[in-house]
Specification:
Blueprint: E1 15-18, E2 24-29, H1 35-43, H2 47-54, H3 63-70, E3 77-84, E4 87-97, E5 110-117, H4 126-140, E6 145-150, H5 155-162, E7 167-173, E8 176-182, H6 187-209, E9 213-217, H7 226-236, E10 242-246, E11 254-255, E12 258-261, E13 273-276, H8 283-293, E14 297-300, H9 310-325, E15 329-331, E16 337-340, E17 347-350, E18 359-366, H10 369-381, E19 386-391, H11 400-409, E20 415-420, H12 426-437, E21 442-446, H13 464-473, E22 477-479, H14 482-494, E23 502-507, H15 510-522, E24 526-527, E25 531-532, H16 539-551, E26 557-562, H17 572-585, E27 591-595, H18 599-607, E28 647-648, H19 651-670, H20 685-696, E29 705-706, H21 709-717, E30 727-728, H22 732-742, E31 746-750, E32 764-768, H23 771-785, H24 788-791, E33 793-797, E34 802-812, E35 816-823, H25 826-831, E36 834-838, H26 843-851, H27 870-886, E37 890-901, E38 905-907, E39 910-914
Parallel strand pairs: 5-6, 9-10, 9-13, 10-12, 13-14, 14-15, 18-19, 18-20, 20-21, 21-22, 23-24, 23-25, 23-26, 26-27, 27-28
Antiparallel strand pairs: 1-2, 2-3, 3-4, 4-5, 6-8, 7-8, 11-12, 16-17, 16-19, 29-39, 30-33, 31-32, 31-33, 34-35, 34-37, 35-36, 37-38, 37-39
Helix pairs in contact: 6-11, 10-14, 11-12, 14-19, 15-19, 16-17, 17-18, 22-23, 26-27
Length: 931
């Protein structure tokens, strides 16, 4: 334990947080070196705020006060500060107190807490963030309650406490409000914390995507290079805010028609966003200039960071620290840029060589600039627009999680498309994705199977198919290629969700219809027999057939196939109009078109969306471009409406898109009954926590401890998981004694690592009914497989026959806590027939889990066999999920085999691995990923 005489600095308490307005601050312990900062901070606090803090006029801090507020033992007395630019903007401290209200030491579990926030920063959520972090620190130090005295007039601070969601008591004594808060997390406090996190992170992205002014730093005078390209795109997009060019060698007022300055500081107006395009060694200077000028966010296009090796990764870490020290957020480095097509913004701060995308309903996030170019070009070719685009490069700060927070509440985005190389914070990603997917589709393509250069987040050890299953559990549509990402996104943005898997197929090519039919079967859909309209079919015939299919109660979606007509004219416009008319006549079901060499049909079907917005003309060089851009008179703020029908050049691609929409629709409908996590009354959570604390008391941090048999049995037993008794049998006589204790019939097994769970090698003898049979089997094992010291034989009582299964849970670095299930044996292992769910699992999750493996029929009476007790199996899975979720110290559990009989089940063997839990996690206080 840290004491005042040995004040080991708790570095793990340091954290960067996003505040309510989207800016950032750093929270860290106050040290003895902070005396000058504390005095300066206090001098900038108003007399009223000082009065609220000390209940009396208190114009300045005495030397004794400064010493007291900067000297802590980090156990019974702790102080935290919120800082921006290294200066304090808010402080919080607690002092442990006893029952008499006086200072105390452990084991007292109550502390008095007090806050002070600089007036200029009040209303930004500083106190709320400090409360979350001081609460986490206090819990770590064994404190369970906070007490606070607040003047009745200090309504802001009272609201901080009452809105936190903690259990609390409130009374009025001696002219002040006395508050007592239980600081153990509750469902309400967690909901409050996550709601604040969502608003803050969404606001931080909004500040980057909708700035009122932009400065491009690193614009060459020649017009060549990255900075000049970004400036031209900003200028030509018709950006509605103020635009500035920055070049330290500039000699004229205008660069490419844009007002130019030597430094950011020379701009005599606020700058909301800076786009940095200077060499990596000059970026720190540019960041410092932006921070000093009050810039809110940065897009760093410069390369030479994590993607370039260890030295670049160190440079990247320092960049993040520097940016956050000024309260800014960062997209990049090595970024491709950002786009926002909102009519009141029209921002193109990117390097895209293509024209500014049309306004649309798709949000797009990528880590790779090259993939960003490919996706933007593909959407442009297909006539689809965007709401926003972010290409984050090395994703050192702003990540896909932040963008999901923004898209969740963005009314302009109906579909979220993400190209990811890692999942970042996997538990947070799946939580945010599940919440977002409940409102709008989230489609993801993962481009990396291993950790890419420039990313400090570890990759997953799970097979790719497993990652897909886990993402699907969270409602994420996982696709394999960027082509599929566009295909699925187009359908979801343009068409309603199908109500089921029944697919009608119609068209003027029998062969194309059959191919589409086969593709539907391969995707698990239920296609109806294709309707062949023959090659003589006219657009009117297509309209009639499509309208009839849409009106039928026998189908949930329609795929139209079309090949060129043998005629002198190209009726693509007529066919597109006919299809749109049919959809307008009978709306409510999705329609996709498969075409062969009918590129003009794609254009005709997408033309209903309108034509690309006219680019804003470049401002005349004699006029400064720093004035807000005014759109041309009569320009529509929204594209023309109409029915949008996506078209695909192959049946397999259209069917894949429809199948993903079907599965997503099924997931959305299942949200109404998403299940619950049962609360079993016999679970001893406190006892398990105590046992784990004792086991890990002398275990160094980072060390994994494998529990012994009896320790594992005891821990699992606290969660109602009973493991069959196993007695060692180092000799035949010991085996006989063990059988006498357990009672016949018994099983004799080898437990040597190379034979464990390998019944196919002959290391198991079952149904031994007496001593003679047991001794004979013992001798046979020795003769066949080796000496007892090598085989490590054990004896167990026989259990009812059933299906042998395997239940596991593991903490995966790329997916979080995962619950796994499969049948025991070589075939299942060889074929990878294992299913997975994220922890915590609900009763609905485990019910689908055991039914999702290919060998599941063996559990339900396959070929006349007796069905097994699947409710007992589901309960076992739920109890294991609870154990892992309640105690992050449990990093791995393997129950193998679990014999599921017609009534009940038996866990024959268990292995448990534990380690110290991370200090921070998705359930801890809000914090940005740290380097």
């Amino acid at each position: 334990m840290t004491t005042e005489s040995d004040p080991a600095y708790p570095a793990h308490w340091e954290a960067d947080v996003v505040l309510r307005d989207g800016g950032t601050a750093r929270i860290r312990p106050i040290t003895t070196e902070d005396a000058a900062r504390l005095v300066s901070f206090y001098e900038q606090v108003s007399d009223e705020s000082k009065y609220y803090r000390f209940f009396a006029p208190y114009p300045r801090l005495s030397d004794r006060d400064v010493h007291r507020f900067t000297h802590h033992d980090y156990v019974d007395r702790v102080g935290l500060a919120a800082t921006i630019g290294g200066e304090f903007i808010g402080t919080v401290r607690y002092d442990r107190i006893g029952a008499d209200g006086r200072s105390a030491t452990g084991p007292s579990d109550e502390a008095e807490v007090a806050f002070l926030v600089q007036d200029a920063h009040q209303g930004r959520g500083v106190a709320s963030a400090l409360l979350e972090h001081i609460g986490a620190v206090a819990r770590e130090r064994g404190i369970r309650r906070f007490a606070a005295e607040v003047l009745p007039a200090n309504t802001k601070m009272i609201k901080v406490f009452t809105d936190a969601g903690y259990e609390q008591k409130r009374s009025f004594e001696d002219g002040s409000v006395h508050l007592t808060l239980g600081i153990e997390p509750t469902a309400e406090s967690l909901a409050v914390q996550r709601a604040r996190e969502q608003r803050a992170e969404a606001r931080s992205v909004q500040r980057l995507l909708a700035p009122g002014s932009v400065a491009v730093i690193g614009v060459s005078r020649s017009g060549a290079g990255v900075g000049a390209a970004a400036l031209r795109n900003l200028r030509d997009s018709g950006f509605h805010g103020h635009l500035y060019a920055v070049n330290e060698a500039v000699t004229r007022d205008l660069v490419d028609g844009v007002r130019a300055y030597r430094t950011v500081g020379a701009i005599g107006a606020p700058v909301d966003l800076a786009v940095i395009a200077v060499p990596a060694d000059r970026v720190p200077e540019a960041v410092a200039a932006c921070g000093d000028h009050g810039v809110q966010g940065l897009v760093v296009l410069s390369a030479g960071y994590g993607e370039s090796g260890p030295a670049g990764l160190d440079r990247q870490r320092e960049l993040v620290r520097q940016v956050r020290s000024y309260g800014m957020r960062l997209i990049g480095p090595n970024a491709f840029g950002v786009i926002n097509t909102a009519p009141d913004v029209e921002l193109n701060a990117s390097l895209t060589p293509a024209p500014m995308p049309m306004r649309g309903r798709i949000g797009l996030f990528t880590q790779s600039g090259a993939i960003g170019i490919a996706l933007l070009s593909a959407l442009l070719r297909r006539g689809e627009g965007l709401s926003s685009f972010v290409s984050a490069g090395n994703r050192a700060d702003v990540s896909g999680n932040d963008i999901l927070q923004y898209w969740y509440e963005d009314d302009s985005t109906d579909v979220a498309l993400l190209y990811l190389e890692t999942l970042g914070n996997p538990r947070k990603f799946t939580r945010l994705a599940r919440r977002t997917a409940a409102e709008k589709p989230v489609v993801v393509v993962r481009g990396g199977r291993h950790t890419p250069a420039g990313h400090v987040v570890p990759g997953t050890r799970l097979p790719d198919a497993t990652v897909s299953a886990l993402l699907r559990q969270a409602g994420v549509i996982r696709v394999d290629t960027v082509t599929e990402l566009v295909d699925v996104g187009l359908l979801l943005a343009a068409q309603p969700l199908p109500a089921g898997p029944r697919i009608a197929i119609l068209g003027n090519s029998e062969s194309l219809g059959v191919l589409t039919y086969d593709a539907c079967l391969a995707q698990g859909l239920s296609p109806l027999p294709p309707l062949d309209l023959t090659t003589a079919a006219s657009p009117a015939d297509f309209r009639t057939a499509l309208a009839a299919a849409l009106a039928s109660d026998d189908c949930d979606a329609v795929i139209v196939t079309a090949i060129p007509w043998v005629s002198e004219h190209a009726p693509a416009d007529d066919l597109a109009g006919a299809l749109r008319d049919a959809v307008a006549e009978v709306p409510g079901k999705p329609v996709a078109v498969v075409h062969v060499e009918l590129g003009e049909l794609v254009e005709a079907l997408s033309a209903v969306r309108g034509t690309p917005r006219p680019s804003a003309p470049a401002p005349p060089r004699e006029e400064p471009a720093s004035a807000p851009f005014q759109p041309p008179a009569g320009r529509a703020e929204d594209l023309p409406g109409g029915t949008r029908i996506p078209a695909y050049p192959a049946g397999e691609r259209a069917v894949k898109a429809v199948a993903e929409a079907v599965r997503y629709g099924q997931w959305r409908r299942g949200l109404a009954d998403s299940g619950s996590v049962p609360g079993y009354e016999d679970i001893d959570e406190a006892g398990a926590a105590g046992q784990l604390a004792g086991l890990l008391a002398d275990t160094p941090a980072g060390t994994v401890l494998t529990l012994g048999e009896w320790e594992a049995r005891e821990l699992l037993g606290r969660y109602g998981i009973r493991v069959l008794t196993t007695l060692p049998a180092p000799s035949a006589d010991a085996a006989v004694r063990a059988a006498a204790i357990l009672g016949y019939p018994v099983a004799l097994k080898t437990t040597a690592p190379h034979l464990r769970h390998r019944a196919d090698l002959g290391g198991v003898r079952l149904d031994l009914t007496g001593e003679a049979e047991l001794r004979r089997s013992y001798e046979e094992l020795g003769q066949a497989l080796g000496k007892p010291a090598e085989l490590q034989p054990v004896v167990q009582a026989m259990v009812p026959r059933g299906v042998d299964t395997v239940v596991r849970s593991v903490i995966d670095p790329g997916a979080g806590a995962v619950l796994s299930f499969g049948l025991a044996g070589v075939p299942s292992e060889l074929l990878g027939d294992t299913a997975h769910r994220l922890v915590p699992a609900t009763d609905r999750d485990v019910a689908t889990l055991i039914r999702s493996i290919r060998a599941a029929p063996l559990l339900f009476g396959w070929r006349g066999s007796s069905p097994v007790d699947t409710p007992a199996l589901e309960e076992l899975l739920l109890r294991l999920s609870r154990l892992v979720d309640d105690h992050p110290e449990v990093i791995g559990v393997s129950l193998e085999p679990v014999v599921v009989a017609a009534e009940g089940l038996s866990v024959l063997s268990a292995a448990v691995r534990v380690a110290h839990a991370p200090a921070r996690g998705d359930l801890g206080p809000r914090t940005l990923p740290s380097y």
